[in-house]
Design a protein that fits this description.
The protein folds into 2 domains: about 5-55, Winged helix-like DNA-binding domain superfamily/Winged helix DNA-binding domain (Arc Repressor Mutant, subunit A, Orthogonal Bundle); about 70-145, Rossmann fold (3-Layer(aba) Sandwich). A hairpin with a 2-residue loop joins strand 2 (about 50) and strand 3 (about 55). About 45% of the residues lie in helices and about 15% in strands. The termini are far apart. It has a 3-stranded antiparallel beta sheet with strand order 1-3-2. It has a 3-stranded parallel beta sheet with strand order 4-5-6, with helices on one face. It is α/β, with parallel strands linked by helices.
């Protein structure tokens, strides 16, 4: 069997199995480990698969991030519980990076106020500022689309 045929069959099998080990390819395709490795490398370079430790998997489909305004109101109680646990891990005078997720936004409401905070989220910065925390804004380009709901 030619390599191109094998590669097609591997991807076809992978769509059913979701992941395959190098040994799975050896056994299914009747090839050597070296040939299976070469096939994995070629598929990974083409972007059709993602290499994992000992095998391959399909890349996750590119997903548009859900609208921030929708996510902020999703699973609020869970986010508040997480924030309350996380706040106990932050000590006075700690330097913290607070990333731009909706769960971390809830942490900004309850974290200690005597920390040195860094964030790339205008929402986080606003809340931390209202609470009189020391806030540093990490620069970059504003992502307008993450703030809008698309219909």
């Amino acid at each position: 069997m030619f390599q191109e045929e094998r590669l097609y069959k591997i991807v076809e099998l992978l769509e059913k199995e979701k992941s395959m080990t190098t040994q799975d390819i050896v056994e299914t395709m009747g090839v050597s480990r070296d040939t299976a490795r070469r096939d994995i490398i070629k598929l990974a370079k083409s972007g059709k698969v993602v290499r994992t430790h000992g095998g391959i998997t399909l890349p996750q489909a590119a997903r548009l991030p859900e609208c921030y305004k929708l996510r902020i109101n999703d699973k609020v109680e869970e986010k508040k519980r997480i924030a309350n646990v996380a706040k106990d891990l932050i000590r006075s005078k700690d330097v913290c990076y607070l990333e731009a997720s909706t769960a971390v936004l809830y942490l900004c409401y309850v974290c200690p106020t005597d920390i040195e905070a860094y964030s790339n989220s205008l929402n986080n910065v606003s809340i931390l500022d209202q609470r009189r925390c020391s806030v540093n804004i990490i620069g970059g380009k504003l992502n307008h689309d993450n703030k809008k709901c698309q219909s």
